Amino acid sequence: MSLAPYACHPDHSRGRRFAQAPAPTRTEFQRDRDRIVHCTAFRRLVYKTQVFLNHEGDLFRTRLTHSLEVAQLARSMARGLRLNEDLVEAIALAHDLGHTPFGHAGQDALNACMQTFGGFEHNLQSLRVVDRLEERYPEFDGLNLCFETREGILKHCSPKHAQALEQQEPGGVGQRFLVHSQPSLEAQLCNLADEIAYNAHDIDDGVRSGLITLAQLQQVPLVDDFRREILLEFPGLAERSQGRRLLYETIRRMLNAQVYDLTAASAQALREAEPTNVAAVRQLPGLVRFSPGMAERSQVLKTFLLHQLYRHTRVMDTTRLAQQVVQELFALYLAQPQDMAEGFAARSKALVGSPGAAASMARVVADYIAGMTDRFATREHERLSGQRLLP
Ligand code: MG
Fold this sequence. Notes:
Blueprint: H1 28-37, H2 40-44, H3 63-81, H4 85-94, H5 103-113, H6 122-133, H7 147-153, H8 159-168, H9 175-179, H10 185-209, H11 221-233, H12 243-273, H13 278-283, H14 292-310, H15 313-335, H16 342-350, H17 357-371, H18 374-385
Helix pairs in contact: 1-4, 3-4, 3-10, 3-12, 4-7, 4-10, 5-15, 7-10, 10-12, 10-14, 11-12, 15-17, 15-18, 16-17
């Protein structure tokens, strides 16, 4: 199927920071997707927390399976809207590369540690991974991805960091946060695919963990309307032994409903706004969207998950330990940079005596910790502190 005029076309990409000859058989966005799948940070996603810590169970989502689910949803919706599937796949697979170990707990702790050194934002860190931290090419740092992929990866950015990016790369990926324009439709789509994915899999993982129940979810219409509809069709699923089948069918219908709602609402918005190319898309309000009714139902579910799952006392207990691991690792490496892996220790050593050395050295430590998997962070913390805080 041909791309819509408002889709990102690889031949009209704004290009890479370092010019490279085209590949014989792959488009530029396919190449980006391939570079991401082969990079080190991507493989680490399998050992990084989504909500449940990696050691808590083998069936819970990790950052990797989450990213794959986002890619699946985004591709499926992209095809329906005639957007670029390769680009959404690249953005989706890379969108969480900058996540710290231990999920949001790790990110909050690292952000607190970095407060006086410019802070820590995971979206910006994902961009840092693909722009600088991956060391795989002889001629440049990072993966040298196309502008459109990098733009999609930088989902949010504070004005302060956007200004810094704009200085390094005028008119680049930081600009839209300063002039308040939109990214490509592919980037907009990945943003919502992320939401659809975690809303659904966090219900699954939450119920599997026993921290939330389907009965509790009766207060969430987006879930419960389907549960009741299914029980009318298949009364046998009310049996206790059929609980998981009922849960999966509920989640499946909920996912379908959101995917089709978003596709229809966005198609409608595109028909009304009639953008003729990507440049027009950037100047319009966001066009990838849920219908107002679905947006509201999705918000009710998000609020439920926040209070009942993400802030569940059992989640909060491990959260505190995870934060302690990150905070103590940060202090330990800052005091003894030679305890970091060789490349990071060398980067830190080279900064001694340079202007702004304290902030730059803290950034090296943050890069090192952010790259860690849950278990590596736990073991490193034990090695350096003599204390094992997590299994
Ligand atoms: Mg995500």
